[in-house]
Histidine phosphatase family protein (Manganibacter manganicus), 182 residues
Amino acid sequence: MPRIIFALFFLVMPVVAQATEAGWAALREGGHVVLLSHAMANGTTDPANFDIAVCTTQRNLSARGKQQARKIGALFGARAAPVDLILSSNYCRCLDTARMAFESEPEPFPALDLPKGDTVEKAAQMAEIIGRIRDYSGSGNLIMITHGQNIQNLTGISPHAGEVVIVTPDGDGLRVLGRVRF
């Protein structure tokens, strides 16, 4: 059994590396929209006393997540076109990912917050994100820091913490151009 797992690991790794290199190639071109799942955070759900305005009542970046955010920023600086704009969910883990990675204050964009529970509200939220992506026409990259659930709702991809999914409008939805894992 361990040999099978070991063999599968070596079969999957080139695919991940290839996907990452294709993602960096797209990001070097500029003019793309990046959906970035916030860096690693403590816990799995926000506490019962959650308050969007108070970071101590939320899941926050772990020590490893803070390192990951800094690594994301360093690699973007070295391997990607400049960043034109950073939009972020209002959750502290997303805002902190932006601040640590890009050393910049992001523009809060409430549509990037966790998805609404109501189906109609969630559809409106996803449409608002897609609308903002459609409206983007800069020469640098637009970074949208959000939650994995939103990225999955928009693209069908369930990203890892700190993973980048590069998208472009396609019909009523989005097409994935590449991914980068950190």
About this structure: Confidence is low (pLDDT under 50) at residues 5-17.
